From TrEMBL:
The keyword Signal applies. Residues 690-786 form the Gylcosyl hydrolase 115 C-terminal domain. This is Glycosyl hydrolase 115 family protein. It comes from the Bacteria.
């Protein structure tokens, strides 16, 4: 007699389960309910996390998680006398007590135990089960499908202890005007009240989804959206409460002291000028009001003072005045914290952010209290401007980093697509951690979408700085694992090649930078799309690279399952195809201006970007309507190009006689250089101090060389210089410093092309075979390309 296929599946599944249970494994099984023991007195965030796991378990296995007294899963937090704490191994428990926000997962005798060192640790441990059963943290935010499973087991003896490398880990919503805000206020959560000049609000329904994502990513902190178009976070009823529900700590950016979003709030709740010199009492009263409101809440308090929005404070004119007033402001703010938060300031999380002009004041010798955390910033383009010194590393308050993958400002915005190179983010943050920035990491994510992968990379590093091997293989493996989780292991290798090429081409020039325009410049020429200094050959090479990349994505699109299509479009298809079309629009336009072809291809590319963006806003049955805008600001680079004629000729093609990627060295002395996949050809190498690279070649009969070094435009790690030494054969060594100052023209060029360029000339003392020697004199030297003419 033949049994129906469905009954056979049930029979064999039951047989497998029986065998697994006989070996004392913990088994998750399709259509099986799971029982959990959790004290009702546990913190709210723990119950929130269990609620998320319940939803995930039902999606994966079809059953339910129910709470009972004697289940196979026991969950508890240290110090609460839970069954879980009593049964996990003593060694693991002893190690867990050393770490905040850590967790243990252990399987013993067909039971699973989760113990957290505190409320967030327990929540992260619970949600680790979601990861184990295959649920992506982006299941809602990128519509990542949840695959059903028949069975999954954790072997008896399975155990893990995890805890964060960085104390406070989170994101900052910024420049939310054209994505997050319009999507939330008109589509996902319409109807919230508006105040002042605002155009909409981001409320508790949206923030609940954000905070769930942060819990899934093992983050604990947010700086909420704060532009003047957005109703301030604390003005919306329910926002604070939902943060408490998810255990999220609220902080604020560099220009929002004591939890006040003054770009909006001062005009509504303040009195007089936002000027501490002339209106001190009113400002103190304004801050006091907010501190009283937040009594008992989880907050990180920014201290100091800037202007109402990303500008210099009012009332001071000289550096001496600025330092004096700022020092008094900090003293007065801390007195308020003592009065309204905690008399013991060591128990009040505080940050001081030396950003822009405030860095000048700090560098002039302004003292910051020892218990305050210093947050160091990148230059807005992903290159950290300061690493903690030995003295700063010794501070009780510690150090942190505020880092950008989205930015509005000069020399040009990049608000549309998240194209920062993963290896740039990795090398900068790894070095920051190694230099002692371990207390708070905040990532400026703009609108969050489409920065999904970079956000997870950043937060994964913050959770476990050693989880990613410190080389190109480690980074490739992290990206491959991410792609495999989202789209399956079958496609992961091909997708890895696609995304590495996507990041490589954008590293050479971000899509927003291809038009040669700039923002916030006085010269009107920067408001008009202009030629890049590329020859026809270079333009065609780049266009062909994007054609090949697009073709790979189109081919892969046909292989992606129906259930993955929405996530695929958001995470791969839109960013890759849209950036390709942007390059086509601009570069075909450059050729058309010079009469090399007509304007058809440029115009078609513009139309294609429009069509792709409409498709993005219609994906998932309109769930993301309003989230994507290919014109985040009304700038010429985003428009259809005017059909004009060029007044000057195209740049001539003058390739070097010899070109090496950094990694193509002939030999090295000292510590081995490390490649991370950075650079114009993914061949840049980080050169340890004192290490010398050599590049050998035959120069023929020439008696001199011109050598161009192209380096990652890092800032000095220690001191004010970042230098290398260069010589040819046994000729004289030339010392080259490529540090830049402020927002100089050189710095602008550097960040737009992601290369610092230095040229040296060398007389040869022999014909034929030559050797170039390059020695790193300071930390942070990354050699991308070496060119010889």
């Amino acid at each position: 007699m033949k049994l129906p296929i469905k009954k056979l599946v049930v029979f064999f599944t039951s047989l497998i389960v029986g065998c697994l249970q006989a070996h004392a494994d913990f088994v998750f099984q399709q259509n099986r309910n799971l029982s959990v023991s959790l004290d009702k007195q546990e913190a709210t965030v723990v119950h929130t996390a269990l609620g998320i796991l319940k939803k995930d378990y039902t999606k994966v296995f079809g059953g339910k998680i129910v709470e009972v007294a004697s289940p196979p899963i026991f969950i508890g937090t240290l110090g609460r006398n839970s069954v879980a704490e009593k049964h996990v191994s003593a060694k693991l428990l002893s190690d867990l007590r050393l770490h905040n926000e850590g967790f243990i997962i252990e399987v013993k005798n067909d039971r699973l135990y989760i113990v957290g060192s505190d409320k967030r640790g327990t929540a992260y441990g619970i949600l680790e089960l979601s990861r184990i059963i295959g649920v992506s943290p982006w299941e809602w935010w990128a519509d990542s499908p949840v695959a059903q499973k028949n069975i999954l087991s954790l072997k008896n003896g399975y155990n893990r202890l995890e805890y964060p490398s960085v104390k406070y880990r989170g994101i900052f919503f910024n420049d939310e005007d054209w994505g997050l805000l319009p999507w939330s206020s008109t589509n996902f959560e319409p109807g919230l009240p508006r105040v002042g000049k605002t155009k909409g609000a981001i409320g508790p329904k949206t923030y609940a989804k954000v905070f769930e994502l942060l819990l899934r990513l093992r983050a604990n902190t947010i700086w909420p959206a704060m532009h003047e178009v957005t109703v301030p976070f604390y003005f919306i009823k329910g926002n604070k409460e939902v943060a408490d529900q998810y255990g999220i700590i609220i902080g604020t950016s560099h220009c929002e002291p004591l939890m006040r979003n003054s770009v909006n709030e001062w005009d509504i709740a303040g009195k007089g000028d936002y000027n501490y010199v002339t209106n001190k009492d009113a400002m103190l009263a304004y801050w006091t009001e907010r501190l009283k409101e937040l009594k008992g809440a989880d907050n990180i308090y920014t201290i100091g003072l800037r202007g109402k929005h990303d500008g210099m404070m009012q009332g001071v004119k000289t550096l001496i005045e600025h330092k004096r007033v700022l020092s008094q402001v900090i003293k007065d703010e801390r007195d308020l914290l003592k009065t309204y938060v905690n008399p013991d300031l060591k128990k009040v999380p505080q940050v001081f952010i030396p950003y822009k002009e405030v860095l000048d004041v700090y560098n002039d010798g302004m003292e910051v209290p020892e218990d305050v955390t210093l947050i160091w910033c990148d230059d807005n383009y992903g290159y950290l401007k300061h690493f903690p010194t030995e003295k700063e590393r010794a501070r009780k308050g510690g150090n942190g980093v505020y880092y950008h993958i989205s930015y509005w400002g000069r020399p040009h915005d990049y608000l549309w697509l998240a194209t920062n190179h993963p290896a740039q983010l990795y090398t900068q943050m790894q070095q920051a951690y190694d230099k002692g920035a371990k207390d708070i990491w905040i990532l400026n994510v703009g609108d969050l979408k489409p920065g999904e992968y970079l956000t997870e990379l950043f937060l994964d590093m913050a959770w476990n700085i050693n989880a990613i091997k410190n080389d190109i293989n480690g980074l490739d493996q992290h990206l491959k694992n991410w792609l495999s989780r989202e789209f399956g292991s079958v496609h992961a290798k091909a997708l890895l090649d696609v995304m590495n090429e996507y990041y490589r081409l954008a590293y050479i020039r971000k899509p927003e930078f291809v038009g040669g325009t700039r923002t916030e410049e006085k010269d009107p020429k920067y408001k008009i799309v202009a030629d890049l200094p590329w020859s026809e050959t270079e333009i065609l090479e780049r266009l062909n690279a994007y054609k090949a990349l697009s073709a790979k994505v189109v081919a892969l699109s046909g292989k992606i399952s129906i259930t993955q299509k929405d996530a695929w479009f958001q995470l791969v298809e839109y960013p890759v195809l849209a950036v390709a079309e942007m390059n086509k629009k601009i570069l075909y336009g450059q050729l058309a201006r010079h009469g090399k072809l007509d304007w058809t291809e440029s115009d078609k590319a513009y139309a294609r970007i429009e069509q792709l963006t409409q498709q993005y806003n219609a994906v998932s049955n309109g769930k993301w309507k309003g989230m994507m805008d290919f014109k985040p600001r009304n700038l010429a680079v985003f428009e259809r190009l005017p059909h004009t004629k060029a007044e000057a000729g195209l740049a001539s093609h003058n390739p070097p006689k010899f070109l090496w990627n950094g990694i193509a060295y002939t030999s090295y002395s000292g510590n081995k250089p490390v490649a991370h996949g950075l650079g114009y050809q993914r061949g840049a190498v980080t050169v340890p101090v004192g290490t010398t690279l050599s590049y050998g070649f035959d120069a023929g009969d020439t008696d001199s060389l011109s050598i161009q070094m192209a380096l990652a435009p890092n800032h000095p790690v220690e001191g004010k210089a970042i230098r290398y030494a260069i010589r040819v054969n046994d000729g004289p060594e030339q010392i080259v410093n490529y540090a830049t100052e402020g927002r100089s023209e050189e710095w602008k060029e550097n960040v737009l092309r992601n290369q610092a360029i230095r040229n040296t000339s060398h007389l040869l003392n022999k014909k034929g075979k030559q050797t170039i020697y390059i020695r790193a004199l300071d930390e942070g030297v990354i050699v991308d390309q070496v060119k010889v003419w």
